[in-house]
Design goal:
The protein is α+β, with helices and mostly antiparallel strands and 288 residues long. The chain is built from 7 helices and 7 strands.
């Protein structure tokens, strides 16, 4: 008789030490393909997204550089035109001032001498204003090197008084703490009020006018608003004359804004916003 107990009992003993070497772990061979299938597309997507961002950044940089070159070219052209206009106008106005001064000296009639002096002073003011406007364009090329400009108090009360003497019903309101402004801004502000009041007298006779000066930090806000005309206008109303067009260019030259338009009640409004510290000719140190 064969003893099977020893054989049966020995078999487990001989196999007990090597079960892991014989039986593989389920799914271990599929880990690498699975990771490859997930990671490779993700890495490719990150690479393509990075290249796309680089292309967009490069295109934006090229566009910014192109815009900067165009802006610099425009500034150079504006400065060139301003210099040429200054040379021509300064020469002509200078001759006018000299001739007016000579007329004042030689004239025997007192009224003629007084008129010649007024003409001479007007020419001097025109030269000063021309220098200031040219200095604004020059300062754009010399940003950061322009010292502080001499300041003046903004005053339009004489313009309002002149309008009242001409029969215009007008009120002047000043808001905010009055502050000194550069001479260029002061002259531009006075020109805005003057042009608005002139248009009221021409196109809206009998209208009630309100002039408001508002000092807001580094800005001066000028509002001229009139009601509807009560009489027939002396000239046919139009979309706006060359005076407003030239005024808008002048305001925009010193980084300001000018808005005009009709009101629902039939009146008209002019709104100008000017920087308080625009540079003047005295800041450039250059002769006119």
């Amino acid at each position: 008789m064969i003893d099977t107990t020893a054989t049966f009992d020995g078999a487990p003993a001989s196999l007990a030490g090597a079960p892991s070497a014989v039986i593989p772990r389920p799914g271990s061979a599929a880990i690498v393909p699975a990771l490859t299938a997930v990671l490779v597309p993700a890495l490719i997507g990150l690479y393509l997204a990075g290249r796309r961002r680089m292309r967009l950044d490069r295109a934006e940089r090229v566009e910014r550089e192109r815009a900067l070159l165009i802006e610099r070219a425009q500034m150079r052209e504006r400065a060139h035109v301003a210099d040429e206009a200054h040379d021509v106008l300064a020469h002509r106005i200078g001759l006018m001032v000299l001739q007016a001064g000579a007329l004042r000296t030689r004239a025997r009639d007192r009224d003629v001498r007084a008129s010649a002096e007024e003409l001479r002073l007007a020419g001097c003011r025109a030269l000063e204003e021309l220098r200031g406007l040219v200095a604004v364009t020059r300062s754009e090329r010399q940003a950061g090197s322009v010292p502080d400009a001499p300041q003046e108090m903004l005053d339009v009360s004489d313009l309002v008084a002149d309008a009242r003497s001409a029969g215009v019903s007008i009120d002047l309101i000043t808001l905010g703490a009055p502050r000194a402004t550069s001479p260029v801004v002061g002259r531009a502000a006075r020109r805005v009020v003057q042009e608005a009041l002139t248009n009221v007298r021409r196109h809206a006779p009998g209208a009630v006018v309100g002039v408001r000066l508002q000092h807001m930090g580094d800005e001066v806000r000028i509002t001229v608003r009139n009601s509807a005309a009560t009489r027939a206008a002396e000239v046919a109303p139009g979309p706006g004359g060359s005076g407003l067009l030239g005024l808008r260019k002048r305001v925009e030259l010193m980084a300001g804004t000018l808005r005009t338009g009709p009101l629902p009640d039939g009146g008209y409004e002019l709104l100008a916003v000017l920087p308080a510290g625009a540079p003047t000719s005295t800041t450039t140190g250059e002769p006119a």
